[in-house]
Structure formats: C-alpha cells, structure tokens
C-alpha cells in the first residue's frame, strides 16, 4: 500500500504536497485539522505514511495525530512538519514514535528522500506483521499442542510448506510424523496427491517395482506396464515413512529421483520426468545407519536438507492434558457414550505417565477407557492395568490366620469411605462424589447397593 495522509491547516501546503506525491503514483488524502485526521483513522482509514503539521488550530496538534496513528496501526510511519523546529520538539516527536521531521521551508528533494524511506520501512513492518499474523492463525489439521516444542514444529511446517525442498522428519515412533507430512502437503500450493509409503511394509523384492513402476515382462507376473508410487505422486507429495528400511539398491534409484527429478521403471529404458516433492521420515538415527553402511551417505545429505525433529510426548508438558481432552471428545462422539471427562485420580495417573509410545499410545489408552467406562467420567478402573496405582504389601492390613471374607471386607471399606465423604461434604452427594473421584451416578449407585441411599434419585444435594 502506498497511501499518504497529509494533515496541515495551510491549504497551499496541502496542495503542494498532494501534487508532489501524486506524481510519484501515491494515493493522497488530506485533512485541514488534527481532529479531522484522527476521525479518519478511527473510521477505519489506513495509511502507510502520515505527514502532519506539528502546530494546528483547534487544540489537536501533530503529536496528538502521531499518538492516534501509533495506537491504531503501529506499522504506519509519521513524518512531522514544523516551521519552528527545536531540539526539544524533535526529541519529543521521535520518542513518541515519529519516523522523521521536516522543517519549513523544505526542498522537494528532501521530502522525496524522507518519504521514500518511510514508505520502505512501512512496507517492511507491514509484511512482518502480516507474516506473524498468518503464522499465529496457522493451525495444521490434526496437529494438537500449545507447548513451545510443538509451536516450533508448526512454525517450521508453515515456513517450508510453500517450497518443494526435500524434508526429513525424525522422532520416536508415535510422535505423529505422518500427520506433520500431511500438514506440510495440505498447506502447500501444490495440488497433486499426497502419497504415503511405508518403506518397511513392502517386501524387499517388490520395493523397487512399487516405488518406480515396471514395464511389461520386466519379471514373472509383470503382464502389463505399471506406474510406480513416485510417478503417482506427480505434482504433489511423496511421503516415505521409515526411510531407514529402504534397501540400498532402491536408495540408488531414489537418489536419482531427488537429484534429476527422473525415474526409470524396472525393465524400462526411457526415464520419466516427475515433478514431486519428497518428505521422508524415520525413527532411526540415519547418521549411525550411514556409519554402519546400511544407508547411503549421499542420500542422507540429499534428504536432510530441511530437518524437522518431533519431540516425544514426555517433553511436551501441557500438551498431554490438551490431547487427553481432545481424544475423550473424539471417542465419546465416535462411540456414542456419555463420557465427558476424566476423574481426578485417573487424570493424575495419566499426567504422571511417560508414554513411551507417545501420542499414539495416549490415543489408544483413551479409546480403550472411553469404550469400557460406564459412567460419565473415566475412572481408574477403565485404564490399562499397567497404569493403575499398585498397592504394596506394606499397605495391606495384616491377614488373620483364619482368613477373611474379601467381598464383605471390601464392602465394609467402601461403605466407610462413602460415609466419610458424605460427612465431610455435609451430605452434599455431588461434592462427596468429587472427593472420591467418581461420577455422581456411580456414587448414587454405590449408596443404593449398600442400602445407604434414599428413594429420590434426583436429589443431588440432600
């Protein structure tokens, strides 16, 4: 935008500056009073540069206009104009955010020089603000998290999506490498398909034919020409998951695809040009694989142009609770259950767990819990046995020689806790249920089972 607001009570000055600026292809708006300029700004008018006289009649001067500009659009640049410049007024103007000031009378070349620089600064600031806003709004589909490590990942996805540069995504299993690859593809301007390939799931004898295609008669069973997955991804993204599993023979062919953008089908003579962006992923240390001779060094460096490392879930802090809440909502709707959240004891266990399987493991735990839970809150009993708190032998009462009736003993303990919770909460059942980390429905059921409930099932606070 090249739009300038000229604010001066002298008509001759407004006309002179308007003529000068319009000759430079600049859109010019004028105002004869400071308040008129402020009204324009508050009505939504925006300007790359505001040139304003310092002293004007009406009680609203150039410094007032300057403050209004900076409070509304900090990227806009303000040039002060004055006939009585002093060091004090200049310092005050600069401290308040003015770009520069001109002293009347001034030469037209001086105006052009100062204005051109102000326009350049505005363009730079406006672009930076736009990029920051776009980055703030950018939320790749499927990637959930507010932790600093994940913010850095999303920032990188936003930056690389518009390029066709090869990307290598690393991270432990279950961290969401394919989700990130898909997000890069979705945010890119390239409209071709997203073609995922798990390099470890295709037999070594078939991997080259699957990736690069083959010609009729190339091997037994090749009854017709077959297009490979690389060619199928033309114009889009080829996602090579578990790239460390790729055999050395196929690595040579892939290197040519990356370097020359060409692929030769198995049994073929002519090469086919393919315009495809490659995103690879691995949970292996490829440097170590190179040192051991299991991965080509030249291919490693060709893949590792832009590395994106995904953090393990145990290093993502508050993201664990955000993901838990998200997956409870997803599976509650998908499985059509009444589960709305996680009880305090169960949540404490889930937040304390390390998740060696990362997000995938957390997702599976929540799906299992939502499936098994009968109440509205996920309780400890719905979590996998390996996650439930273990009671040590030292915490168990001494077992009598004659033995006990375990069911009766458990019933006695349960009744004691229910009554203690009711006493502490002065009979308010909803609060007592929260104290025990169970749903109100479960609390009411237990009371009834033990003969402690009343007939009014809807009375929550008696």
Topology:
Elements lengths: L2 E5 L3 H13 L3 E5 L2 H9 L6 E5 L8 H11 L4 E6 L4 H9 L4 E4 L4 H30 L10 H13 L6 E4 L6 H10 L7 E5 L8 H6 L16 H4 L4 E5 L6 H13 L1 E2 L8 E2 L3 E6 L3 H6 L5 H7 L2 E4 L9 H16 L6 E2 L1 H9 L5 H15 L4 E2 L27 H19 L4 H8 L3 H10 L13
Parallel strand pairs: 1-2, 1-3, 3-4, 4-5, 6-11, 6-12, 7-8, 8-11, 13-14
Antiparallel strand pairs: 9-10
Helix pairs in contact: 2-3, 10-12, 13-15, 16-17, 17-18
Helix-strand category:
alpha/beta
Mean pLDDT: 87
* Broad CATH class of the largest domain: Alpha Beta
Radius of gyration: 35 Å
Main sheet attributes: strand count, strand direction, barrel closure: 5 strands, parallel
CATH topology of the largest domain: Rossmann fold
Measured between the Cα atoms of the first and last residue, the distance is 67 Å
Total number of helices: 18
Gross geometry: flat
**Oligomeric category:** single chain
How many distinct folded domains?
A: 4
- Spatial order of the strands forming the largest sheet: 2-1-3-4-5
Helix content: 40-55%
Organism: Microvenator marinus
Protein name: Sigma-54-dependent Fis family transcriptional regulator
InterPro entries: AAA+_ATPase (IPR003593), AAA_lid_NorR (IPR058031), CheY-like_superfamily (IPR011006), Homeodomain-like_sf (IPR009057), HTH_Fis (IPR002197), P-loop_NTPase (IPR027417), Sig_transdc_resp-reg_receiver (IPR001789), Sigma_54_int (IPR002078)
Modified residues (4-aspartylphosphate): 53
């Amino acid at each position: 935008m090249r739009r300038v607001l000229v604010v001066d009570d002298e008509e001759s000055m407004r006309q002179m500056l308007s003529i000068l600026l319009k000759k430079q292809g600049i859109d010019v708006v004028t105002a004869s009073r400071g308040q008129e300029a402020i009204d324009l700004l508050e009505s939504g008018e925006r300007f790359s540069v505001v040139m304003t006289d310092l002293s004007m009649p009406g009680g609203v001067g150039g410094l007032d206009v300057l403050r209004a500009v900076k409070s509304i659009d900090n990227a806009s640049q303000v040039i002060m104009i004055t006939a009585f410049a002093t060091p004090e007024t200049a310092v005050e103007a600069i401290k308040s955010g003015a770009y520069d000031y001109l002293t009347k009378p001034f030469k037209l070349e001086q105006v052009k020089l100062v204005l051109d620089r102000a326009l350049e600064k505005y363009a730079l600031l406006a672009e930076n603000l736009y990029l920051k806003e776009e980055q703030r709004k950018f939320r790749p589909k499927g990637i959930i998290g507010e932790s600093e490590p994940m913010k850095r990942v999303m920032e990188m996805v936003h930056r690389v999506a518009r390029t066709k540069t090869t990307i290598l995504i690393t991270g432990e299993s279950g961290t969401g490498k394919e989700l990130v690859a898909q997000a890069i593809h979705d945010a890119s301007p390239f409209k071709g398909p997203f073609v995922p390939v798990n390099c470890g799931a295709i037999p070594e004898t078939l991997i080259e034919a699957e990736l690069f295609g083959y010609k009729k008669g190339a091997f037994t069973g090749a009854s017709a020409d077959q297009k490979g997955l690389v060619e199928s991804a033309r114009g889009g993204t080829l996602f090579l998951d578990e790239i460390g599993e790729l055999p050395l023979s196929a690595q040579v062919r892939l290197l040519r695809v990356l370097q020359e953008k060409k692929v030769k089908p198995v049994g073929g003579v002519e090469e086919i040009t393919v315009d495809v962006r490659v995103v690879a992923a691995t949970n292996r240390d490829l440097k170590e694989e190179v040192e051991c001779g299991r991965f080509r060094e030249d291919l490693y460096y060709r893949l590792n142009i832009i590395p994106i490392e995904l953090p393990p879930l145990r290093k993502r802090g508050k993201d664990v609770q955000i993901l838990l809440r998200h997956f409870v909502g997803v599976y509650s709707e998908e499985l059509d259950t009444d589960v709305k959240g996680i009880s305090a004891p169960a949540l404490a266990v889930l937040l304390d767990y390390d998740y060696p399987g990362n997000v995938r493991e957390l997702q599976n735990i929540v799906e299992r819990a939502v499936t098994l839970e009968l109440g509205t809150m996920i309780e400890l009993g719905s979590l996998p046995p390996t996650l439930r708190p273990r009671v040590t032998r030292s915490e168990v009462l001494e077992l009598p020689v004659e033995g006990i009736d375990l069911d009766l003993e458990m019933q006695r303990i349960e009744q004691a806790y229910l009554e203690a919770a009711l006493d502490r909460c002065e009979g308010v059942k909803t609060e007592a249920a929260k104290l025990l980390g169970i749903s109100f429905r479960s609390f009411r059921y237990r009371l009834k089972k033990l003969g402690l409930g009343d007939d009014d099932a809807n009375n929550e606070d008696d």
